[in-house]
Every structure is written in C-alpha cells, then in structure tokens.
Amino acid sequence: MAKKPKITDLLTLAQAAKAYGYSSDYLRRLAEKGRLKADKLGSQWLTTSGDVEAFLVSREKRGVYKKRTKRP
C-alpha cells in the first residue's frame, strides 16, 4: 500500500465481504492473486474500504461487476 492506512481504516476480509456483499473466500482469492490490494498479517488478510472500492471500479470499467453491491 502506497500510503499507510490508519489502524482504524483496516478491515478483515470477512468484514469487507459482509459490507460489500461478497464471500470472504472470493476476496481472499483476489488478494492472493494481487487483484485486491490487501496485506497478510499472520493468518489474517487486511484491506481497506478504499482498496475494495478501487477493485469495484476496476471491475466496472471492464464491464464485469455485481450491480447490487452494498457500499458503506
């Protein structure tokens, strides 16, 4: 991550999945492939809502996206 996020901005992939309507396994696979910006701390993947939003925008540009996603 270019700019270090504040600890309060970090989300686990489970939290991000719940907030955006995806499964945590799907987000984990995206993180492992490097398509979703996330860092692994121990056994826990962490991301930010900004990084999830950036991923969603990249999907919309390619025309592959969920039309009904929840956004906090």
UniProtKB/TrEMBL annotation:
Domain Helix-turn-helix: 10-56
Gene Ontology MF term list: DNA binding
Superkingdom field: Bacteria
Pfam assignment, any one: HTH_17
Protein name per the record: Helix-turn-helix domain-containing protein
